[in-house]
Design goal:
The complex is a heterodimer of chains A (about 475) and B (about 500).
Chain A (H helix, E strand, L loop, with lengths): L7 H11 L4 E17 L2 E21 L2 E13 L6 H15 L32 H15 L1 E18 L4 E17 L5 E7 L8 H14 L3 E2 L4 E7 L1 H13 L3 H5 L27 E4 L33 E5 L2 E2 L6 H6 L11 E4 L9 H6 L3 E15 L4 E14 L2 E6 L1 E6 L1 H4 L3 E4 L3 E3 L11 E3 L2 E12 L3
Parallel strand pairs in A: 7-15, 8-13, 12-19
Antiparallel strand pairs in A: 1-2, 1-4, 2-3, 4-5, 5-6, 8-20, 9-10, 9-12, 10-11, 13-14, 14-15, 14-16, 16-20, 17-20, 18-19
Chain B lengths: L4 H4 L3 H14 L4 E17 L2 E19 L2 E7 L4 H18 L17 E5 L11 H16 L6 E17 L4 E19 L4 E6 L10 H4 L6 H17 L6 E7 L1 H13 L4 H5 L28 E4 L20 E6 L2 E2 L6 H7 L10 E2 L8 E2 L3 E4 L8 H6 L3 E13 L5 E13 L2 E6 L2 E6 H6 L1 E4 L6 E10 L4 E9 L2 E10 H5 L2
Parallel strand pairs in B: 4-6, 8-15
Antiparallel strand pairs in B: 1-2, 1-5, 2-3, 5-6, 6-7, 8-22, 9-10, 9-14, 10-11, 12-13, 15-16, 16-17, 16-18, 18-22, 19-22, 20-21
Classes of the chains: A alpha+beta (about 475), B alpha+beta (about 500).
Chain lengths: ~475, ~500
């Protein structure tokens, strides 16, 4: 419990100075956040918060030294210089109790970020000082039109300080923000949605977003009922992000090698090198890059626990741009130093952003142009409640939400009922009929956990709408 | 049991006094104050090796005000009276910035003040008092036991424990100190057919519980030994089982599966904040709108659903909620008809339900988050002198007996859902046959509960639940339990998930 504020750098140095372990990593996360939430054209909740979490990872060497080390991870909030020793000792005790770790390895050699000495970046409620009045106007406009607006705006600044007994002193400041806006007709029978990612709220045009949704509610005035079945379906960038993020989360090389993932090859081993694009003319590339413009993310490994594709021993490893799928071929799966060595594969740790490109540089038609080139199909707004049904094929189920539109001869002709879908993001890659240009987008399903994505819209052949949902 | 001393030794009363008096002086018409420390531990093993042990503790304090009819909330981590008073100022500032967006003045339902109280949940051994070596060793032995069995290629094991300490104070004079303990453990065995590349998994069905380490060291509450002995054989049979033929089946559903269907199709659908649209842009709304209260045929006449935050060992159980409301039990569905909702103080006042008093469903998952209406323990009641599992199965000509939860998904108004399970046995002419695999059941909420012909007796009743119910923006997780008897449903659509994935 904290009674006085120490700087994150002081906490890192103090913890490392106190450590009696064979190796230690200390991570301090200092974060501030502001949010506004509204429903039925009025505010419902709001808030600001500040938090500081200190995580101490202690390594205790085994019989063969670091190669058979154990790790203990203990994290606490509200730690000060007086109480940090207790945390360090708890972490050392946890390492003693844990027993040898499979991913044990020498800690990463030291290096320092140029901005290590800087204070944590911060946000507060004033980040909304221009946005809140504009939102107030948008709510007033909706009221005048007889529509209802619902939504949420959030801005956070997280600054991470990662130090180690080997001399790592790494700092990364991460702004994250988004606005989600949902418009409904007064009787709630028609609904539309949009999500906008933003780093600082200076680029959010909430009035334009409100107008776009009002137009979609107009589209929905003509209602067309369709049965379950397989439809040519345009997935907007947000929905493509939903599906690709899930495939990415399941891309641990170890799981593939263990025969228990969609990326396992029958007969043993992984599907690395295999084409996933099948008969599709579109050979997409799925990649991550910590310095991708507008999607900048932590440029080094920050692992708070070990799993099939993360290792606390790898903390601080520099991340390089990685192509997971290259021109339709599975090119890399996520590894730690240990799982990479075991499978004789390159080291390619997870990175906190994801980009799908159907053409070099992500060029392609806009969503409007993709719609205009569609003869007969469905245009989705968003997907929702996506869950894994079968890990073998990575079959996912979920719902369409807030606007399924019928496209005929390149024009939206009305709104269709919602559907439950059953589809695999891996299988979809072989059924891409046409792809749009890659743009920054907000995954509606996973944006809370994975917010930095750039995706194209995709028109998919034979998308499996398994049943009709009466929800509107 | 007593509340953790490291929590009660904090200057809770002084902090509350500083925050509440500042909020009062600034003109807030309502102010409440919370300090929370949530400690959690996760132990993960892969094939008996420690994958990770992590222990975290999240502490903080927050002030919530109603100022000129608008909410304001501020949270921090520095536990000094000055910092608490500064949070009160920030909360009032947040209310001022938010005012242009607010058109509906906030008024809270009255609640009699309860003064000073201490409440501790019911458990025997605090899992945080047990050495890590003992907990790790316990799950290592269980992992090795499964790995030693024929056909088991891999075993994942996980253990999670949470200790939640909270202090609540408000301008009405409440000073409430509470502590809850909860634990969860699961093992998943994996079988791989190397030649075909096919693999299957089977997870234990032991529920998460509002109990301590004693839940894992005996077989009284959950028969771990019997379950671990049976699991490898069940897994081998699943890998070898035929793929289910899709179509209509009668279903006998075990509580280990049915709890999640109750959670999704009844628990969330009867949250009044959802019905009113507060969650419309995110978690969604509900088909069970307020105009249908007292008339909606939610299910067949054998359907009786209660909400409670008082049942012993329930994950949603607590003495007082995060708005200082004393917890209760009430009816949600009576003889198949919708008769009640889950409430917090604002929405209870807004709609005058429950005699204009909240039924105690406000919860925040940490001091850093604002309390919102969260799920109570929502449970399907068994029939007094009701049938056994065997009797229910004997009534089925062609059906499936489904055990254990797995995949789940439901739409934003809680109509259309799809669930799978850990395993399903074919029932033919009242007899259990072997397993079938690749099954999912899909239905619309009121059709499904309308097709419930019978609920089992109290001897079939088991309480399931989750630590991880998500709701709200910013996202919050809540623990919740759901009791259910085994129940019989007629004519439910079964899908074959391999055919669903085909092109």
């Amino acid at each position: 419990m904290s009674t006085q504020q120490a700087t994150p750098q002081q906490l890192v140095d103090k913890a490392l100075e106190l450590s009696r372990a064979d190796g230690a990593v200390v991570i301090v996360d200092a974060g501030t956040e502001a949010n506004l939430r509204w429903a039925n054209n009025t505010l419902t909740t709001n808030g600001v918060s500040a938090a500081q979490q200190v995580t101490v990872i202690s390594m205790k060497n085994g019989a063969t030294g670091a190669a058979s080390a154990a790790a203990g991870v203990v994290g606490r909030s509200g730690v000060d210089l007086a109480s940090i020793e207790d945390l360090v000792r708890a972490s050392e005790k946890a390492a003693e109790d844990a027993g040898p770790a499979e991913d044990a390895a020498e800690l990463v050699p030291g290096r320092a970020s140029a901005d290590w000495d800087e204070a944590p970046a911060q946000t507060d409620i004033s980040v909304f000082s221009r946005f809140a009045p504009a939102l107030g106007e948008t709510l007033a406009a909706a009221r005048a039109e007889g529509n209802l607006l619902f939504g949420y705006a959030e801005h956070s600044m997280g600054t991470q300080y990662l130090g180690s007994s080997t001399g790592l002193r790494l700092r990364h400041a991460q702004p994250t923000g988004s606005v989600q806006l949902n418009a409904k007709s007064g009787d709630r029978s028609r609904s539309a949605w949009t999500g906008v990612p933003t780093a600082d709220f200076t680029d959010v045009d909430i009035v334009a977003a409100g107008q776009d949704l009002a137009r979609r509610l107009e589209w929905a005035k003509r209602r067309i009922d369709l049965p379950a079945g397989r439809y040519e379906t345009i997935l907007p960038p947000s929905s493509v992000a939903d599906l690709m993020i899930y495939a990415y989360w399941n891309a641990a090389l170890r799981d593939a090698e263990d025969g228990r993932s969609v990326f396992s090859r029958s007969g043993g081993g992984s599907r690395l090198g295999e084409s996933l694009s099948g008969a599709s003319a579109v050979k997409a590339t799925l990649r991550s890059d910590p310095s991708a413009p507008g999607l900048e993310c932590t440029p080094y490994v920050d692992a708070y626990s070990s799993s099939a594709a993360t290792s606390v021993f790898d903390n601080g490893i520099e991340l390089a741009p990685t192509e997971w799928i290259k021109d339709g071929v599975l090119a890399a799966l996520a590894t730690t130093r240990q799982t990479a060595a075991a499978a004789k594969a390159p080291l390619t740790p997870y990175i906190d952003n994801l980009i799908l490109e159907a053409a070099p540089g992500g060029a392609g038609p806009s969503l409007a142009e993709l719609t205009a080139s569609t003869g007969d199909g469905l245009l989705l707004t968003s997907l929702w409640y996506i869950r894994e049904v079968d890990p073998q094929t990575l079959l996912l189920t979920g719902l369409t939400r807030d606007g399924v539109y019928k496209v005929e001869g390149g024009e939206v002709v009305g709104e269709v009922n919602n559907f439950r879908f059953n589809e695999s993001p891996v299988s979809l890659l072989s059924r891409i009929a046409e792809a749009g240009r890659t743009e920054r987008t907000f995954s509606r399903e996973w944006g809370d956990y994975f917010s930095r994505t750039a995706m194209p819209a995709l028109r998919i052949r034979d998308f499996n709408m398994s049943s009709v949902s009466p929800a509107s | 049991m007593t509340v953790d001393e490291s929590f009660t030794s904090l200057p809770l009363g002084d902090l509350a006094e500083a925050a509440l008096s500042r909020a009062h002086d600034l003109g807030a018409e309502h102010a409440d104050f919370r300090v929370e420390t949530v400690r959690s531990q996760n132990i993960n093993l892969r094939d008996g090796n420690v994958d990770g042990v992590s222990d975290s503790s999240d502490s903080g304090l927050s002030v919530r005000v109603v100022y000129e009819g608008t909410w304001g909330f501020a949270a921090g981590v520095v536990l000094t009276p000055d910092s608490a008073a500064a949070l009160a100022e920030q909360a009032v500032e947040v209310a001022k910035v938010s005012k242009p967006v607010n058109s509906e003045p906030v008024v809270l339902a009255p609640e009699p003040p309860h003064g000073e109280h201490v409440w501790v949940s019911s458990y025997e051994i605090n899992p945080f008092d047990v050495p890590d070596t003992e907990k790790i060793g316990h799950f290592q032995r269980w992992s090795q036991r499964l790995l030693a069995a024929d056909g088991v290629a891999h075993v994942d094991a996980e253990f999670q424990a949470v200790q939640e300490c909270k202090y609540f104070a408000d301008l009405a004079g409440n000073r409430l100190t509470q502590q809850r303990i909860r634990t969860e453990g699961a093992l998943t065995a994996v079988a791989v057919d190397e030649e075909s590349g096919a693999f299957e998994t089977m997870r234990t069905i032991a529920p998460p519980v509002g109990r301590g380490w004693e839940f894992f060291t005996g077989n009284e509450v959950h028969d771990w030994d019997a379950e671990l002995d049976a699991l490898p054989g069940l897994l081998r049979a699943k890998l070898a089982a035929p793929s289910v033929e899709p179509g209509e089946y009668d279903l006998v559903i075990d509580p280990s599966n049915l709890w999640l269907t109750i959670h999704e199709s009844i628990g969330h659908a009867t949250e009044l904040d959802r019905a009113l649209g507060y969650e419309a842009a995110y978690a969604g709304t509900s088909f069970a709108t307020l105009d249908k209260l007292g008339t909606l045929e939610y299910g067949s006449p054998v359907m009786n659903i209660t909400g409670d935050r008082v049942s012993e060992h329930g994950l949603g159980t607590v003495g007082f909620d995060d708005e200082g409301v004393e917890t209760q039990q009430w009816d949600i569905v009576k003889d198949g008809i919708l008769v009640g909702y889950q409430l917090d103080r604002r929405i209870a006042q807004l709609k005058g339900l429950n005699g204009g008093r909240s039924n105690g469903c406000a919860f925040a998952d940490s001091a850093g988050h604002v309390p919102i209406q969260r799920m109570a323990n929502v449970s399907l009641q068994p029939a007094e002198d009701g049938p056994s599992v065997q009797e229910l199965i004997s009534r089925v000509r062609r059906g499936l007996y489904i055990i254990g939860d797995k995949s789940w998904s439901i739409d934003m108004q809680r109509y259309n859902f799809q669930f799978t399970g850990q395993r399903a046995f074919l029932i033919e002419d009242g007899q259990i046959k072997g397993q079938v695999k690749d099954f999912a059941y899909q239905a619309t909420t009121t059709d499904f509960w309308g097709a419930m012909e019978a609920v089992g007796g109290p001897q079939t009743y088991v309480v399931g639940g989750s630590f991880q119910c998500g709701k709200g923006q910013p996202g919050q997780v809540a623990p919740v339990s759901h009791g259910a008897p085994t129940a019989l449903f007629r004519g439910i659509r079964i899908l074959n998930t391999v055919q669903e994935a085909g092109q």
